[in-house]
Write a structure and sequence with these properties.
The chain has a domain of 62 residues. 71% of the residues lie in helices and 0% in strands. It contains 9 helices and no strands. The longest helix is centred in the middle third of the chain and has 31 residues. It is elongated and about 115 Å long. The relative contact order is 0.03.
């Protein structure tokens, strides 16, 4: 979508090559015509030129520096050993755990430490809450039959006391809806 709103996106890479002095002559003329017409690309080119000019000067000073023959030999050995196929044997589990430690745990040690502290606190709280109900339930004996019978008697007495005696009994209450016989319903429908 960004390319749709930026018509100069095709020229950005070519501008970088031109600022570095490595753009082929075949593309240089077309790009210079575009630079003459586009102010944004000119500004971008000037920014790139400001960065690449010091780099080009330092390259001229560093050109006579060459690596020693020993360094070249080490590089060649490293390239050859990387290119040669190695015998495949299963990696030990400890190396996998070590890589996992370096990739996951080590960069975020404060976060993992905080999470571990929170989990330890949750576990301690959970264990402390579970110990109390077990000790209470284990020390209290179940109620005897006499106590249960007394409780049921008290429950019956309480139900009688709470009963509403001001309302008429079920038989004396007026019925709100009296269904009609089926014969009367069919007469109304057929008429």
């Amino acid at each position: 979508m960004k390319r749709f709103f930026d018509p100069c996106w095709r020229h950005r890479q070519s501008l970088a090559l031109l600022a570095g002095g490595v753009l082929p002559e075949t593309e240089r003329g077309r790009l210079e015509d575009h630079l003459a017409a586009c102010a944004d690309c000119r500004k971008h080119f000037q920014d790139l030129k400001a960065v690449t000019a010091p780099l080009a000067n330092s390259l001229a000073r560093l050109a006579p520096i060459q690596p020693s023959q020993a360094a070249k030999d080490r590089w060649a050995d490293a390239i050859q050993s990387a290119a040669s196929p190695k015998t495949s044997r299963p990696a030990p589990v400890t190396s996998g755990l070590g890589e996992w430690w370096r990739d996951v745990i080590r960069p975020c040690r404060p976060i993992w430490t905080g999470l571990a502290v929170v989990w330890v606190l949750i576990l301690a709280g959970n264990l402390s809450l579970h110990d109390r109900p077990h000790t209470w339930a284990g020390t209290t004996p179940p109620p005897s039959k006499e106590i249960m019978m007394a409780f049921k008697d008290r429950q019956i007495i309480l139900a009688e006391l709470l009963a509403d005696h001001s309302a008429p009994p079920e038989a004396d209450r007026p019925k709100l809806f009296l269904p009609k016989p089926r014969t009367e319903i069919t007469k109304v429908l057929s008429a």
